[in-house]
Design a protein that fits this description.
7 helices, alpha/beta, Rossmann fold, about 25% strand, globular, about 300 residues
Length: about 300
């Protein structure tokens, strides 16, 4: 493990490599410099989007702030691909080289959690995953297949890419999606700007799979969230409580694009972003509310 210091900003940046299935996989870590809580730091694993990489995810999401504020260790794992800047995840039916090579990214996540729990003061009951686009698909897959280790999931602009799920326990879910997303359309199918040309499941269909898996009531509550961004309106749909206090929350951004709410996108082609909605704060509050109570 190597590191560089961002200590004036309140965290250290570390690089870690993990052997998985005959290849070495890597991740970038942001670790608070403050003394850890008695039970260790919560761990937030943040998966980059398709044809991206960890450093881009750091800039795109701004999740380093969780480490800077002494809230959590943030891990940015790297997907796979023949070009270091164009990496993807095998999230199910997407995407790219990771899918074509049948990359066992779930095994990587499992091994990464092992490595971090043995090398850092990590609270094993507070391991959470999030991701953007193809990274959201990967977060969903990790939540479904490593439910005994993943406390909760926050997905941004990426649908469930598995045909079905059977998690070992109820996994709380938070999802953000814009109605004008032209990469992973809300209604499913092939996005107008899609690079992979994958036909995605409708977002709500995947969300309802989680509602069912978590044993949540099928009726929902809805509330309007304040938004000062021109042309964007935000509704939050909540299903729950399900088993073990789980819930499924869908933040629907009317007029929003393929973006991370609260962050200014680096490309016009991604569409509008709800800059007045701090997704990172909502994600953190959700994670803090949903620790892993006990293994199944």
């Amino acid at each position: 493990m190597s590191h560089s210091s961002d200590a004036p900003n309140g965290w250290l940046t570390l690089a870690i490599e993990v052997p998985v299935g005959g290849r070495r996989r890597s991740a970038t870590l942001c670790v608070p410099v403050a003394a850890p809580p008695v039970g260790g730091w919560p761990l937030v694993i943040a998966f980059h989007g398709g044809q991206s990489h960890p450093e881009m995810m750091r800039r795109f999401s701004g999740l380093d702030a969780l480490a800077a504020a002494g809230r959590a260790i943030v891990a940015y794992p790297a997907g796979t691909g023949s070009r270091e800047s164009l990496l993807t995840w095998n999230g199910g039916n997407c995407c790219g080289e990771a899918l074509a090579d049948a990359s066992d990214d779930v095994a990587f996540v499992d091994a990464l959690i092992d490595a971090l729990e043995s090398s850092q003061p990590v609270d094993s009951g507070r391991v959470h995953v999030t991701g953007m686009s193809n990274g959201a698909m990967m977060a969903y897959r990790a939540g479904a297949e490593l439910a005994g280790r993943i406390a909760s999931v926050a997905a941004v602009a990426g649908p469930l890419a598995l045909g079905s799920i059977a998690p070992l326990r109820a996994v709380p879910i938070l999802h953000f999606h814009g109605t004008l997303d032209q990469f992973t359309p809300l209604e499913g199918g092939i996005g107008r700007r899609s690079v992979t040309r994958v036909s995605h499941r409708p977002v709500l269909e995947g969300i309802l799979d989680w509602v069912h898996a978590n044993g949540c009531p099928t009726n929902w509550s809805v509330e309007q969230l304040p938004c000062s961004d021109e042309g964007i309106a935000i509704e939050r749909f909540t299903w729950g409580p399900g088993r073990d206090g789980s819930e499924v929350v869908f933040v629907r951004l009317e007029g929003g694009g393929h973006t991370w709410p609260g962050r200014r996108p680096d490309s016009f082609f991604l569409g509008p972003s709800a800059l007045s909605l701090d997704a990172n704060e909502i994600i953190w509050e959700f994670f803090a509310r949903h620790p892993l109570h006990s293994p199944p």
